[in-house]
Structure prediction request, 754 residues.
Amino acid sequence: MQRVQQDKRNEGIFRMRVPLIGVCSPYTRNLETGDLQTIIWRAGKKEVHVAPYEPYCYVPDNETGEQYRITGKEGSILLRKEPYRAGEELPSSLIVDGGRENIMDRLVIEHPDYFYGFPNDEPLRTLCFDIETHSPDGSFPFGERYPVVAIGIVTSTGEREVYLWDGEDDKQVLIDFAKFIKEYDPDVIYGYNLVGYDIPQILYRASFHGMTNYKKLLNRDGTDYGWSQQKDNNDLRMKAGGRVIVDVLKHTRLDYALSGLPRGLKPVSRHFGLEPLELDFEHKDLLEYSLSEIHEYVLSDVDCTKYLFDMYFPRLQYTAELIGVPLENYINAPVSYVTKILQGRSLYEQKIITKDINRDRHPEIYKDSKGNFQAAYIKLFEPGFHKKNIKVDFSSFYPSIAMALNLGPDTTRIVGYEEYIDKIEYDDGKLYIPDDKIGKRVVVQIDNDRQSCLYSMCKKFTEMRKPFKEMGTLEGDSKSNALKIMVNTFYGANTNPYLNYGDMACGITITAVARFLLTTGIQLIQKKYGDKAVVYVHTDGINTNCDIDVDWLTKRLRLILDATIPNVESKWISLDKDNFKEGLWLQIGNYVLRNEDNTITKHGSTFKASTRSTFYKQTINKLIDARLDNKVTKSFIDDIYDFDSLPMETFIQRRTLNRKIEDYKSETDMMIPLVQQGETVGIEPKIRTSYLYYKTKDGYKIEQLVKSKTDLDVRYYWDIVSKLLDKFGVAHMIKKNPPLTILDRKQQSLLEWV
Prediction:
């Protein structure tokens, strides 16, 4: 495909109020002048500026000190700021805030408008790419020995390119790709799982070919900085010199609307109405397809990825602009980053010092790294099939509770623990919260003489959302979702054991009041609509099988909350209603719903089939359709159990080697024999090598060692069907004994089944 040879920088679509990248750390200090510097990338260029900040700590000072408060504690203390430089010996003082925090974080906390002075006011140049990699042995193609067959590219200016392997060497593919990046000079590089796979794989192959300067070719500054993975709470991040890396997969995982959906590019694309091109890699090698087929396939993937990026990126851009941080700082930050910055600013303005992290502040709760406290309320009341499904949702539940009770790290603190009573009470300015994990009632004091920072921020962003929700445009949806996500992150940050800009007092109070409102709502519904009316309860919603009067329920809950907790602003508590058609509830967290538009929503591990056989996928999809249509008949069951008509490849399963084989402790782990068998046919056991296998009469065996369907363990696959029928509520139709089929004629006699 010919590429248009012209500069289209001015045809981009995104401009930003903030720069692409900002860096400020001990390593950016000017060694000659001693000035702390910020390094900024915008409009394709690197700039260096003197930072308006120097790290400091606090020193007790009863004579010249100012009044400060400590998070979670009562009273004030006289302190003064003491300059502090990295590497210097710290004074014997309170080492808090600026003295021990990330310098960049303190810069944006204490100087919220600083980066607005460096807008990226030229249109962003974005580049999407996707790779296809060949696996000669059928294992997962990751590492130096797997050539890159194709790299597909699409840019913000409309350029589309595919670089194809010549059949002998993929080095030229890598050279052409790097050349394109150098010529086009993108600000943002994005893809789908490119941090977890595409970029590492390209770098593996570059190393294989001895291309030691490959990182320099990809970077703007001519260095080999970055292009390495950073792992934080299972969140892979990557940085590159002068460019922003966006992995679209990360943002689909954060999208609540996709809850329960497999996060592969194909299912996510189909969810949004796209029709991605499919190739059957389970039964056919990549190189068995023509170059033109590979060409169209990789372009289909980049087009789908671009669609998703264009949908998610405006939200990312808007959030970075709203909080006043460089784009990369937000994109590569953990989920708690927004709360850290916004609550940090509020606390700094109020002269509240965030001494200690949550875990150290509350040892009674954080008895281990995760914390030992009662969280969300989840319960399945009525499993099985339901013809009608009405979901009653609390609107922005946790933020609404925070506003209703004026909760925040500046107003809320734990003042004690008392003997456990399963009842929430309010007395003499204190809220008594039952927590069965702690085994006590937590006594929480809320200061209502001031408006909490959490209240102010939640109210501000909630009100900002209203006009965006009404716009009905991509811009409106993006900004509305950005504000919604920001508000919803406040709860998690206040329970984060390692964060010092929140406090567990807020988190534990929010979840306790949420449980109280949910259980009260359940009682009200059951009393009015019957004992069987409530089907399922999860965190912020109640699923019912009857048409609930939401206005009535909202009013009743507000009255009860007012009577339980004085000074509460119950007006923030409100409910919405979603209508569904048929629903099937298997177990907690596992259910299927048919939406009003007849699409199917699947949620839970039962339906996540990435490592399952095609046999499992086909069976469960047939069961979903038949059960929701109430068409599970004898003939349908006969068809489900009919293994003879299925191709052998249907029964293949996949397992990936995720760690060194010696780290698999259990001798019964199937990974051990699979690896041993793989070595006999020349499969080297490297990390992320995938093994295709069957369950045979002689155990688990890799695909290469299984000759025919008669080797398969019929009982194993029979039990899969039977267990699924049981889960789907039709256990009475399970066939106890397999018939004598082609699959089991060599296995045992018919009499042995009985």
